[in-house]
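Blackboard transcription, Thursday session:
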Amino acid sequence: MKYCTQCGGDLEWKVPAGDNMHRYVCTNCGFIHYQNPRIIVGCLPVWEEHRILLCKRAIEPRHGLWTLPSGFMENGETAEQGSMRETREEANASVTIQSLHTVFSIPHINQVYLLFRAELDNLDFYPGPESLEVRLFKQDEIPWDEIAFNSVRFSLQRFFEDLGTGNTASHTHVSSFQEQPG
Amino acid sequence: MKYCTQCGGDLEWKVPAGDNMHRYVCTNCGFIHYQNPRIIVGCLPVWEEHRILLCKRAIEPRHGLWTLPSGFMENGETAEQGSMRETREEANASVTIQSLHTVFSIPHINQVYLLFRAELDNLDFYPGPESLEVRLFKQDEIPWDEIAFNSVRFSLQRFFEDLGTGNTASHTHVSSFQEQPG
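(Written on the board underneath:)
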């Protein structure tokens, strides 16, 4: 960031009066450009209570690896609406949201995943433009070595553990720098 | 938004190639300025399992009304760290996070609340600069007519209901235009 979105003036990286963090502040009009974490919304689309829909990525990063349908939450939508939209865009799949499943913070890239447990409405799904392939997996079929993101691996692990225990509470996790990004 | 943060060029409100939503796009360098919902993180600070800490707001909006300690999540922190930071800033209170309690989407102002159930570590708390007063409330002491935000009212209602049922799952809610903002 170099220029003010309001007046085009030069930005300075400094702590504004009354604040305790560095922000981009306009040297001309004083406008403060706050930057905040972004939300990734997505689903664990479930069929017959034990099979999960995954998408093989057609885009970078992690082209060719498997992920849960998910993406950046947009203005004007709820977390649940965003999760359903991403599932429709990436897998042309229709789901009914059941409950929040995973909250996964990744502070070094300023992201928070909100993943919802959802029921697939039917088996009429096929790859969207960002997916090479879309299919259902049972637990022993999950390609654990080809999962695109740690957040997705974490969520899948908790899902299959919960199948055994009947737990329905949500799971929170904090990613660390030591882990593979995402 | 009028000017590009990267080159200072004029911005245009249009649908970029390959996208399906309007964005601010630079007419000079083509940079796309995405805008996404922001996260409000906060706590339900609990003492002796049934008393909740609330803060009386010293700032607008809703000056003089009561709220749970909460505020915008910052880059570089987890949702849990942000919740603890806000609780320290607004109430000088130290807490131990227990679990996610509320996810509350407010799509018309592009916000998502993430509120955590937390245990107060001790009774050594006092108002920060954004609070006029900080105190503990039992259920029958809650000033329901003087609660600052619907998200806070929703979360408090669910908390006291759960006291009776023993439920520990998290609660999600979508605010509508018909409700009072927040």
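Lecturer's comment: Residues 150-165 of chain B form the longest helix (16 residues).
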